Amino acid sequence: MHDMRDGENKQAHSWCSDCSEPLCGECLKFHRKGKTTANHKPIPILEAEKLDFSVLNIPETCHIHDDQTLSLFCLQHDTICCAFCLRESHNACKDVESKENASKGVKMGTAIDDLQHRMSEFSLMIGDKYKGKIRNVRKEFNTYLDELEQEIDTKFDACNKECKGEIEKHIKDLTTRKNKSESWQTAIETLTEYASETRIFAAIKTVDLLQVEEEMFLSKFQEGLVEYKLRSSPFEFIEKIKPILATLSELKVEKIKTTVQHPLNVQQVYAYKVQQGKTQLLYKIRCSQLEMKVLNKASFTMNNQIVFNGSPFRVYDITNSSVHTIKVGYSSSDVTCNVKNNVYASFPPIGVYNIDIKNLEEGPRINKETSTENAYGRVKVNNALIYSNVENAIVLLSQDGTAVKTLQCKITVLFICVDNCGGMFISDGKSIIHMIETGSHNEISTNMKSDHEIRGLDVSEQGQLYACICHKEEGSVVQINTSTGYKEPVLENLVTPRHIAFHPTKNMFLIITDKCKECLIYQITN
């Protein structure tokens, strides 16, 4: 690279990531003394030349409005934009801030770790699993060739050449993509050490988009992966070999669709089959952001927060992505919130506690009496009543802890949800029963398959019943017609969805998925 300042062509010795330009020795001295560039950290030009140029040379101006600086960040769409883009495409977005504010703390945050983890997994996926699988196909093919008779070597060589050509093409393509992903990772590591937070932030967003494209390519590559098999006319008797030899040489290669047993998880790149116009993904929260090993249950609050139960609890602020901690004395199994912003959590078998999210502390216990081990595993709140389970019954508690009513259940209660009219839906993981406060039961005919199970249940503000249904590790979110039992898919191809919770007043819901590692927040758009 060369420094072209003042019309001169000088050999560059350094590269400034914040300015996206090479520097000669003289310019480097002025760069270190300048008021606006003194805190920049140029790197040796030889190191810069090893890095991916698409990460180093990130534009500062908008590609749509070339006279506008990329100075804003929309949290809702997770994108950097200019002032004109904000007016044209993000005028309805509430969560918009300056790029400088959004990038604060990026070096200490989880964005770099999360992106590097994804890139590492991507490189390993290509380097180990898929290249190995393709090489195994070639090895098996060659072994099969070695076992065939010498008389048809010419035909087999032609088939072998055809198959190898396709396989080598795939290996070359995957190797190129693997090297590209590793170069992005190296660039991010170098920028993290030498560049400003604003620059790092822009680089992360750029690489994130590039990484999404690579992940989508790999997903499509998996779907189109084929295995090669040789077909020939079989022969059974020695005396028939000679007349059949002529047909044995008529070999051809067939491409047979094969299934990848452990496909890449590309939930982060919107690989869900979401019904058109049904839902819109708003936010993604990883357990690493909350400093939690796994996510169990969660609930929206009325002040734009989400409470995650655990030991301790975490309170995530959707507006500014901040996280607060609430220490609790026991292990919680469920959490809920009502329209008055009262949060309650169940601690089996002790009872239901109020959680003070304003002062970030555990509040008093609601129930006056403790029960057996199979009690207070679930909790829901509706208006002034708190619903929880005791043995095979639902107990309705008032705010002061008085047991207003106890309703016997016909099934083991694993999930409870309550509609605005006081009706309850309970499930044992296989069936769903609708109960009312008189105690009457009405089973909903969902026609669940024997190898499918319900992992989550909740009711929307409009009274519509939704459920998470899983088959092994694959699952979906469905809307259930409470009259007919018909299950209308809302989200499909989810990885282990195990909890769903609706906002008390907004048409939003969250699900915990990806083996309890991620919380996804959706807006229902129709």
Automatic annotation (TrEMBL):
Pfam families: zf-B_box
Keywords: Acyltransferase, Metal-binding, Transferase, Zinc, Zinc-finger
Record-level Gene Ontology MF annotations: ubiquitin protein ligase activity; zinc ion binding
EC number, as in UniProt: 2.3.2.27
Record-level GO cellular component terms: nucleoplasm
Start and end residues of each B box-type domain: 8-45
InterPro entries linked to this entry: TRIM45/56/19-like, Znf_B-box
Signal peptide (UniProt feature, chain positions): none
The keyword Zinc appears for this protein: yes
PANTHER family: BONUS, ISOFORM C-RELATED, RING-TYPE DOMAIN-CONTAINING PROTEIN
Record protein name field: TRIM28
Source organism of this protein record: Mytilus coruscus (Sea mussel)
Species lineage: Eukaryota, Metazoa, Spiralia, Lophotrochozoa, Mollusca
